[in-house]
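User:
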Amino acid sequence: MPSSMDKIFIIDAVNYLFRSYYAIGPMTNKKGVSTSALYGFIRSVKKLINDFSPEQIVCVFDGPDNRASRQKLYSEYKMHRKKAPDDLYPQFEMAFDYCELAGIPALCIEGVEADDTMATIATWAKKKDFETYLCTSDKDLMQMVDDKTFVLNAHKNNELFDEKRVEEFFGIEPKQVLDYLAIVGDQSDNIPGIEGFGPKTATTLLKEFNTLDSIFNNLEKISSERKRDILVQEKEKAYLSKKLATLHLNVDIPKDKDFYQLKEPKKEQLEDFYKEMNFLSLLRDVSDQKKNEEEKLDYQLITSEKELTDLIENLKKEKEIVIDTETSGLNYLLADLVGVGLSVKKEQAFYIPLNGDIDRKIVLTKLKELIENENISFVGHNLKYDYHILLNCGIEIKNISFDTLLASYLINPQNRRHSLDILSLEKFNFTKTPIKDLIGSGKKQISMKDVDLDKISNYCSQDVDYTFRLKELFEKEISDNNLEKVLYDIELPLLKVLAKMERFGIFVDKDMLSIMSEEIQKKLKLIEGE
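Assistant: Predicted structure:
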């Protein structure tokens, strides 16, 4: 990407919102309001800002009654489009509100489509000697590409369309894109184009004659009689299509450079906005999270056999223990056990490494004594994973009394994110140490086996400490919502059943399946015949 002059990034907000709505599954906040498009929009805008660190930026929205001017020319303009889903419309306004809180300039001009506003800003920016990046996947804006104006498709790994790339993609120069659209039309906008003329024909004609005017001025040079006849018949429609596809460059936009300056976010209001929308993964970027150093934490790394023996003997007196495993990977059948975290009260935790100074066999023997004790129950977050990992080492958790992941699903089934990191942030305003801080990512990622013991001890201790805190919180909420039977009589007993099915598979009655298949086929034929 060129870098010698000031840059301005012009974001097609509606394009981002539509793409996000259909790319992300259903999401709602606690009031049941749909938020998937908004969430994807925010993530996309934040990524663009992180990737390019722009000083000038603007999000452009369609204005109210934005189709009116073009529908005066052609009443069918965009009329074939399906009405946007009812739960998408409110997210446009919410996205505009987000921009204000995040310090991102935004424009929504009455009677004007976003494309026209973007094109006008790009024209103004060129005069001000900016490099302009039109952030969209809309091909209409390719007609604006020149030596200082580019189209940036952030949804395709920041694919950049300069003059050369436009020519590679369409087979024509950017200045010919408007005439190209006049010929092929645009189904998404219901621009008719010339009937029967597709991209290949349009490209061939424009390469030979350069412009739409030149094509019609040289009809006798077109060898195909059929194409000549169609062009004669469709001339009026071609020029109508060109008018419809022409971007308006005279929109009344702010012409003060300072308007487009990225500003500081309104942190407190943005934090409240994220909480209202239940965007907990975004909350950590703005909230002043609690640092657990302020608490009197007692996180202990067990480094000697005596410490291990004393700990196990003391824990045998407990009725309930929080447990968490650290492993070499996410595949529960292949991952190696690296260490175990244990906790019996808030602000206290113990981490027992299997790759430290204590012999691994001794650690496993001691853990087996504790975990298979019939008088002790265990609590975890996604305990089925820990159950698998310990079974790999010949240790079975005999009694499971609570799983904070399952409890979170039951209490807030509309939520899509129930990770310990997210819940710790939501419930306690505490940001846990990210796993990437320990093992890195990508090609430089290391195994948990190779992480410094003090770091992994603190990480795992946070896990069991905050699982303990969540258990205290969720236990009451489960009771208040009359969910005890679902959790204790269905979900928790099912945990071990599912784990065994995952480990060993299930038997299938082939004959019964065949009978069921025949019955379903008969029903389908009856339905199809109705």
